[in-house]
Specification:
- Helices cover 19% and strands 26% of the residues.
- A seven-stranded antiparallel sheet has the order 3-4-5-9-8-7-6, covered by helices on one side. Strands 10, 11, 12, 13, 14 and 15 form a six-stranded mixed sheet that branches.
- By secondary structure, the protein is of the alpha+beta class.
- It has four domains: 17-35 and 163-244, Nuclear Transport Factor 2, Chain: A, CATH 3.10.450; 36-154 and 504-612, no CATH class; 251-376 and 417-435, no CATH class; 618-831, no CATH class.
- The chain has 13 helices and 35 strands.
- The protein is globular, with a radius of gyration of 30 Å.
- A hairpin with a 4-residue loop joins β8 and β9.
- α5 (339-359) packs across α6 (420-435) and α7 (452-467) crosses α9.
- GO terms for molecular function: metalloendopeptidase activity; zinc ion binding.
Length: 832
């Protein structure tokens, strides 16, 4: 929701009261009949312990929430050759007994597979008699390498039917019951409908594993403005639940960036019914409008379309809702013209979309956006009321066969689409809906604690403040960057400066949760947005947990987290916070995130202890190939890490050197440490039984990676066969005083990994380097061993096998960090 004005985003007939919510706070209006229990309410949520897993699952910990169990720190073999959905199905079949599933998975329907920055989430819905069971799902999270890392399940084992298995009322009659509920809510004898309702049969479970057949009816209406979700008992016709799922709240052009207050630092500016003046005109700025369709002069483009949909009636006082349309693609309008708001919307939404794709990395290997890779529809003048909202899933794209939503902006007070903060807030709802459909409106029938709407509202405010933080008057922003909706709120706010809300408040969980029934998700969202804003703060290198993650890293982790949230039975802030900690492999980031959520009371107790999360992944910091035949050559910038061992006589030995920054890891807390490398190319000359490859800890982690490549010697300092730090790698001379000889190493502790002809691109090889890490090692040399004679004698430069002219000629190339950071060498560390 945007602004809590006129119409609440949650109109639940099952509540005792229907609340209209304004910018100033909640106020009661008409009473309506009570039809059932609350859908959402706020209370202190007890966070279940992370108990050790004792079943046959390859996971370390389990949290048993009221209606869902989460298994974390799972570890399965890598598998890059199969689709994530196939790997997930195989995993569920293999562990069906431990998860209390049918062995053949015949009652699980594959819903979707969502790819985030570094993982895939595959979701399955439980069915019964080929109909979906509401809020009964299983989801599998996998790393980019195909490992299963996390499981969420709300599967209902041994479910039984309560009542008839065939509907006692027709689809048409169910839709009439839904419309009757909307009629009661609106007080209108004939609510104006948009299109035809969509209806389907499903099963609704109770707490005793009993299933009741229900109709789900989804109805769009103009008066009252809504997208109503109604749940009806298919036997009795009783309305179990009814809620409104509307989420309220290249050419050139002139726009607000983001609004006149923020850019001018003049707090007394007023809208005056769209009247323009010199001061306000000076707050318009030239922008480049990217991605415009070449076949039209309207504002329709790659990521935004403000021309396709129109309000049924134009809400402007002059009755003119004219589209921005210019053959020269110069969209210069003043704020008293209807076209101006369209330009502001196009610029704001397109800019955020490109930030997600191009700056934060939400794109696939072809550069396509992985969030909303299609035009977002928007109506600049949707209503004469002072409200804006996102309508989810209201039109179908015929080419994509999927439902998509529309952004709607109101003209009451200050035209909402004149304030880019409001636009970005609404677009934030669209982002979440695309990442995780159905999660942030609150799932289906959820009669329990559900803070998903507060999380959604908090994120909307956060994204608006974060994206516009560096825009506008620097003096104003130095104190009021956390103010959201500075311009729009001048028509109703009583604060100075005027703000819809701020993201730097002092609210604390749970004592500051809204006590109204139902609670105001905007007020509760202020707790979530404040925690996110603290994550957004600059990094403090001296005292990391006193600082934040930095703007772009915070935006990236916060948005990426939405992919992985499972809202089967609602979701709480604590669940979302724990998921964010799970989703980063960086130990410092985990501690910073944990600290911010603990400061807000969202996490408590054991979950506020550093290291509660037992698993981290550390990517290689520096890597290079060492060439015996060219002992003064550096390859620190090469995309390949090559391993070869033909013979010392032929001088064709190639070893690999790897360095990691794990200086902040406490060795005594380590349970296991694993070094992982990914195959790029295999020569398939490893013999019938293969050959071992060993990793040996370097006596010193000090070496310079250098900038040499396969074809260019590089310049400056770098590591070579002769030197850990050659001061001039460009001259092909030995420029050091050390006796390096291909790497000064200690005896190995890790068992060597046998390389065979069967290794293929994408396969991973691993070594257990636990003892090395416990001993303080942070750098390793990777070398070939001798399968026949054993590799215990591997030390400084050569092995017994390398002295044998007739040993196998196996050669292998691994991915370097310069080639693909996803497949780069890494350490995987678990803690006690």
């Amino acid at each position: 929701m945007n602004k809590m004005k006129i119409l609440s985003g949650l109109l639940v007939l099952g509540l005792e009261f229907f609340w209209n919510v304004s910018a100033y706070g909640a106020k009661p209006v008409n009473l309506i009949p009570s039809l059932g229990g609350n859908k959402v309410f706020s209370q202190a949520v007890e966070i279940p312990r992370a108990d050790p897993v004792i079943s046959g699952l390859p996971c370390q910990y389990a949290r048993r929430w009221p209606k869902m169990t989460t298994y974390t720190d799972c570890e399965t073999p890598a598998n890059k050759t199969r689709k994530p959905s196939e790997t997930a199905k195989t995993f569920l079949k293999d562990h069906s007994q431990s998860l209390l599933l049918r062995q053949d998975l015949s009652d699980l329907k594959l819903l979707e597979g969502k790819e985030s920055l570094n993982k895939t989430v595959t979701r399955f819905q439980q069915t019964f008699n080929n109909l979906p069971v509401l809020n009964a799902f299983v989801s599998i999270q996998q790393s980019v390498n195909g490992r299963v890392t996390k499981i969420n399940t709300s599967y209902i084992n041994n479910a039984v039917v309560s009542g008839a298995t065939i509907s006692g009322i027709s689809k048409v009659f169910a839709e009439k019951i839904a419309l009757d509920g909307i009629r009661q809510l609106s007080g209108s004898s004939a609510p104006a409908m948009i299109g035809t309702p969509r209806s389907e049969l499903s099963w609704s479970p109770d707490t005793n594993r009993k299933l009741t057949l229900v109709w789900i009816v989804k109805t769009r209406t103009l008066k009252p403005r809504g997208y109503f979700y109604t749940l009806i008992d298919a036997n009795t016709g009783k309305r179990i639940l009814q809620e409104n799922r509307i989420v309220f709240a290249a050419g050139t052009g002139k726009v607000h960036q983001p609004n006149p207050i923020q850019t001018s630092d003049l707090l007394n500016l007023l809208d005056n019914n769209d009247q323009t003046n010199l001061v306000l005109e000076q707050q318009r700025f030239d922008v480049l409008l990217q991605g415009l369709d070449i076949g039209t002069h309207l504002l329709q483009g790659e990521f935004v379309d403000v021309a396709t949909f129109k309000a049924p009636t134009c809400p402007r006082l002059d009755g003119l809702c004219v589209d921005a349309d210019d053959v020269s693609r110069i969209y210069y309008y003043t704020r008293d013209q209807a076209q101006f708001e369209q330009v502001v919307i196009y610029s704001a939404v397109d800019s955020v979309q490109r930030y997600l794709r191009d700056s934060l990395g939400f794109q696939d290997t072809l550069g396509n956006a992985t969030i909303r890779n299609f035009p977002t529809m928007a109506i600049a003048h949707a209503t004469d009321l002072d409200q804006s909202f996102y309508e989810p899933d209201v039109y179908e794209d015929p080419s994509a066969f999927e439902l998509r939503g529309i952004l709607n902006f109101g003209d009451g007070g200050v035209d909402d689409a004149e304030d880019a903060d409001i636009i970005v807030h609404e677009f934030a709802h669209a982002i979440q809906n695309n990442q995780n459909p159905g999660c942030f409106p609150g799932g289906d029938y959820v009669p329990q604690v559900n803070e998903s709407r507060a999380i959604g509202e908090g994120f909307g405010d956060y994204l608006a403040a974060s994206f516009h933080k560096n825009q506008g008057n620097s003096l104003y922003q130095s104190t009021d960057a956390p103010c959201v909706g500075d311009w729009d709120s001048t028509s109703y706010s009583i604060t100075t400066p005027a703000c819809l809300r701020r993201v730097d408040g002092s609210k604390h969980y749970p004592e500051d949760l809204d006590s109204n029934n139902p609670p105001d998700e905007h007020k509760d969202g202020e707790i979530w947005s404040a925690a996110l804003w603290e994550l957004h703060a600059d990094v403090n290198k001296v005292h990391p947990t006193q600082g934040g993650l930095g703007a772009s890293k915070a935006d990236q982790l916060i948005i990426d987290n939405h992919f992985t949230l499972d809202c089967f039975n609602g979701i709480t802030m604590s669940q979302a916070a724990l998921a964010m900690i799970d989703n980063t492999g960086d130990l410092n980031e985990k501690d910073i995130i944990r600290t911010k959520f603990c400061n807000r009371g969202i996490l408590i107790g054991a979950d506020c202890t550093s290291g509660v999360n037992k698993h981290i992944v550390v990517n290689v910091q520096k890597d290079s190939t060492l060439l015996m035949g060219e002992p003064n050559r550096n390859q620190g910038a090469s995309p390949e890490l090559s391993l070869r061992s033909v013979s010392e006589k032929e001088q064709k030995v190639m070893n690999i050197i790897l360095g990691f920054d794990i200086s902040k890891v406490i060795p005594t807390n380590i349970a296991t440490a694993k070094l992982v490398m990914t195959v790029q190319k295999n020569s398939a000359e490893w013999g019938a039984k293969g050959r071992t490859v060993a990793v040996l800890p370097l006596k010193t982690a000090i070496f310079e990676e250098g900038n040499g490549t396969l074809k260019k010697p590089g310049s400056g300092r770098g590591v070579t066969w002769n030197c850990n730090v050659d001061t001039n790698i460009s001259n092909n001379d030995k420029d050091c005083n050390t006796n390096w000889k291909g790497g000064d190493v200690n005896l190995r502790s890790a068992t060597s990994f046998v390389h065979t002809n069967n290794l293929k691109t994408g396969d991973e090889v691993t070594w257990d380097v636990t003892e090395d890490v416990k001993d303080g090692a942070m750098a390793w040399l990777v070398k070939k061993g001798n399968q026949n004679k054993g590799d215990d004698q591997i030390i400084n430069g050569t092995t017994e096998g390398e002295k044998n002219e007739n040993h196998n000629r196996g050669e292998i190339v691994y991915f370097a960090k310069e080639s693909n950071i996803t497949n780069a060498p890494r350490l995987e560390i678990t803690f006690k």
